[in-house]
Amino acid sequence: MRSVVFTAMLREPMKLLQKSLIAFVSIQKSGDRKSIEDQKKDQGLHECEVFGSWPANAESTFAWDNCTKTQNNHRNFVPFSEFCEKNLPSHCIFKESLANYIKTFASLVVRLRINYVSTYRPDGYTFARSRGAYLPHLGTGWVYRLKRGIGHCPCQICLNNPPSSSPDWWDIEVFTACHVVYDKQEAQWTSVDFFHNDDNSEITTVLGYDVKDNDPRNDVCILRCATHDKHLFQTLEDAMWMCYYLKKDIKDALLPSLCVVISHPHGKPKKITVGEIAGKADFCPEESLMADFMYTYSAETCNGSSGAPVLCSVGQDYTGSEVVWPGAGPHSWGNVRGGLNQCGSGAFYVEETEEEEEEEIEENY
């Protein structure tokens, strides 16, 4: 049975916790939803969702029903379970193979629930006015790398109650936007929800423990979390290998400007939107974790989509070579100009050699 781990706050100093909760409660006691909207505006064009004191489902439904970004009741946000080849552009060939790849990749997409704002967020940065405070905000990410843990497990359960022996554990790296999870402080207050595919999904939740790398300028971050759940690890690894093999068969199916976003808008079960790449955005590849691209696109997003994978197929106009798939970068900004959205810096898929594949298998088992 999948283990479900709930957020705990024992790692933070009690004094800081009390201060944060008092600040949060003082906002909520007013019953004024305007204060929540003010928190959302504190992120500029970024698209985290911010929750108040209501139950999570009520907050999510309220945000969905009162969304002002989409004027068509989220009609273009296709539920994960319903996505199929008919949702792809009509002139796209081999649509079944492409749809299968997108859904397989979507199984690696996670919802991120962060309950704290780091004291190290700089002035003028997203949520900077809430530094050191308890602020429930949500985003999206995707499983980027898996590996077998080495040494003592850094998960909260093992830290609080050190086992007599070192049990097996696995390290899961999740790619997201830096404005969603800024640093280690926030990582330790982050819950990662796997398999939130529909309202009846059996969700598996794992806690974050650290940030491996972050890049505020280009808005990318790698969050680390640890699990003892071998079934979870194997399920994710199977999906990653399936993506690896499926992508070999779909190059001819691609359009030179196809763009797909997979996210948890307003904290809802994952949705898929399809659009086109509109153009390039300026970024600093020499300073970025992901150095291939930063694009604007028409695929729709909403609050809660921050950090979501933006899958791109890019043709000769952008790369100077044949169509490349997939490019993946985290969704970062909404409505940057003319209704277009923009991702943080991303990278294109590079095929591994057989030797690298064998090394990865040996590392994980």
Automatic annotation (TrEMBL):
Q: Which Pfam families has this protein been placed in?
A: Trypsin_2
Q: Which domain of life is it from?
A: Eukaryota
InterPro entries, per the entry: Peptidase_S1_PA (IPR009003)
Q: What is this protein called?
A: Peptidase S1 domain-containing protein
Species for this entry: Elysia marginata
